[in-house]
Amino acid sequence: MSLICRTTLALLLLPLGASAAPRICLVVGIVDGDTLTARCGQAGAYEQVKVRLAEIDAPEKKQPFGERSRQSLASLCFQREAVLRPTTIDR
After folding, report:
1. Which of 14, 23, 63, 76 is such that its CA lies 20 to 30 A from the CA of 57?
2. SS3 breakdown of the chain: % helix, strand, coil, rounded to 5?
3. 89 within a domain of the structure (yes/no)
4. 9-46: per-residue pLDDT in tens?
5. Which residues pair with 24 in a beta bridge?
6. Within a domain: 52
7. Which residues contact 83 (CB under 8 A, 6 or more apart)?
């Protein structure tokens, strides 16, 4: 499961305010079905990055199935490594 998550996220993530180079990060939070928080960098110098999944439209937390969508993303990726490959910066 970890390998699938890592490969999928490597292709889909859009970090906010991150550089264009791929980075290996640890997923530390799930906001909703298409947004998560990752911790990148070396121990003692971590950077927390908010990430939106590219080309994914999931319900917001308060919409129908929003919590279920968040739980599904969490079961795939929470506390797992992900390769962030930015394609653009979101607003």
Report:
1. 23
2. 25, 35, 40
3. no
4. 544 555 555 456 888 999 999 999 999 999 998 888 89
5. 83
6. yes
7. 6, 9, 10, 13, 22, 23, 24, 25
CB-side neighbour CA atoms (13 Å) of 20: 2
Which residue's entry shows tokens 């911790």? 39
**Looking at the domain assignment, is residue 90 inside a domain?**
no
Domains: count for the chain: 1
Strand pairing of 23-32 and 47-53?
unpaired
**Matching residue, tokens 């699938």:** 4
**pTM (two decimals):** 0.75
Structural domain of residue 15, as residue ranges?
2-84
The amino acid that residue 2 corresponds to is S
Exposure string (b/e) for 1-38, b if CB count within 10 Å is 16 or more?
eeeebbeebeebbbbeebeeeebebbbeebebbbbbeb
> Could you tell me if residue 74 is inside a domain?
yes
